[in-house]
Amino acid sequence: MKKITALFVMLAMLLGVGALADQQAEMLLNAAVSELGYTATKGGYSKYGEWGGKAYGEWCSEFVSWCVARADEVYGANMLGNDYPLQTSCADGAAWFKERGRYITVNGGLRGEEGQFYLADGVSVADRPYIPQRGDLIYIEWYKYNRLDHVGIVEFVTQDADGTYLVHTIEGNNHEIGPTPTEVRRYTYRLDDPSIRGYGVREGGLVGTALKMGSQGEEVVAFQKNLIELGFYDDEPAGKFGKGTETATKNYQKKRGLTVTGVADCETLNAIADEIEQIRREAGEKARQKAEKEAAAMLETAKQAIAANWFGEFDPYDEETAWNRLMADITVLNVDQKEKVYLSDGPNGNRKTTDAHRGFFFGESVAVRVLEEQDGWSRIQAYNDYDELEEGWVRPGRLRTVTPNQTWGMIIDKRTQRLYLYKEGKLVTELLVSTGTTKGQNEDYCETASGEFLLISPTGGFWSGNLWCDQAIRFNGGDLLHMVPEVYYGENVGVNPDGTGDFSVCESALGTRASHGCIRVQRKENEDGYNHTWIWRNLRDVKNIKIIIWDDDGRKLKETEASASMYYNPNGGEKFHADQYCPGVKSRYLPLTEIKYSMLARYPYTALQPCSSCQAPERPEKVATWNAVIDQAYEELGLQAP
Q1: Which fold is adopted by the domain 408-550?
Q2: What angle do the packed helices 2-15 and 17-33 form, to 10 degrees?
Q3: How far is the C-alpha of 18 from the C-alpha of 306, rounded, in Å?
Q4: What is the pLDDT of residues 132-142, one digit of tens each?
Q5: Does domain 330-402 have CATH number 2.30.30?
Q6: 319: which of 132, 210, 376, 518 is 20 to 30 A away, CA to CA?
Q7: Is 364 exposed, middle or buried (0-12, 13-18, 19+ CB in 10 A)?
Q8: What is the pLDDT of residues 191-209, one digit of tens each?
Q9: 154: helix, strand or coil
């Protein structure tokens, strides 16, 4: 599927946007043609209605959306929600096109839809009827109640010898000229058939509607949103063109040197469309440049991590691979858990560095790799307190081998900010964590060291400023695994009635890098009944549990299907989510609004950042640029990329 999608993208680049639109039409119509002859039952059941949520309901809209979804599935495309609406009613489908400026009326359309014109030259649609294109949607009114009753797909248009245009369609559930029970069939209409009310077109920017005092509807909503984006309107886009919208329109026209009328005419709409398009291009380019800059800065770090081969790619749900790694013996420094063993720059006892946070590893719990032996000395490697791979020499007899606990093991992935708990080869649960922050004044020192460690001793609670960190278990000198902290704002201020501090601040950061180097673990029980208190009560005294802190340097980001559903809060939300009911979002904003993953590359979604609470994937441009850097790192090292 990906190869097919890549081919379409390549063709679009070579031949232009129109080529891609033609490919979309072909994919949709191939799906529709394959359904010709499908017949609903006498009781009205259809698979399209069932797919849309009403198995025995009307299904013309559901048939169209089903075909789009089927084309996406077969060809690896991403049209549903991007190029065609997910519609369960004709009115909703037309409204979707109208808000995007892609709905063209016929014969004045329904009442309230008059005044549409072509943006290219200002000619009225009533004076020059639109000739539909292959893949457009056709909307029909049968019963003269000033509403849309039916929708189909335009297959092609022909012209008779006398000049009459004929529109050929594929439709489902046509009650008026179709058989009973209804079925999927081909139909033909004269272009001037009075039942045709409009078309949802594949190309934007074709038409506009003159909007003025008293206008209302989706076109006004879209116009008001554009004025808001350009800073000329600060009210809600309610879809009614009143005094406030008229004033905003006049202000825009005056500021841009246009004729000041307060009417959104052809000149005004074209000017606004040009500005919005420029904003969209700049937003997309800005997001891409930011991702490229961040990825390029990590090239040398990625090369170092790949060359050292401490981690590589990782899937916590691959239980066999994870468990084998957890059960492998490790080498540690044979001194007390809080003692530092300083490295030498050679097998001679000379200190390598006097930096406060470099040049040593803690004893007893920190796994090191032995790289070579010389004159009874060992050259070892591990991650230091700055999360840097460091090498040096240690004296003879300072090393010993430890066999990890054979029942329990933990992996903490710094990329997903999750703790994965394993028992006897099975993943039993996962918990939210916060490892050390990589932002701020002490970002290097605060980042949690990667590597392999042993949970070595329970230390209990401790203060870190005004944070009370309870149920701590040591794994690397001063780095501890502990419950998410509670904040105290003074002797009484901010303390809850039950005597506890305020957990909300640190809990809201779970799933992100936020600690000072320790690992904060969620306090609230997950669906499996686990939390940090469970770990404290059941595992604090279990000896030699291996904990792997999995770095993300040198690892590719996970790719997400373009058609995957993401969600966001259109009322000022700054993040996108993998869960429509994300627990990190206030309930009044739920359920969140659906978009497709690929839409994140389009304005206005270019500013949205992934939500850590529901493990939303990284942004598409970040995935693409970062993975390209990883490939480059492997290539420069002369290694085969995974």
Answers
A1: L,D-transpeptidase catalytic domain-like (2.40.440)
A2: 140
A3: 43
A4: 999 999 999 99
A5: yes
A6: 518
A7: buried
A8: 999 999 999 998 878 888 8
A9: strand
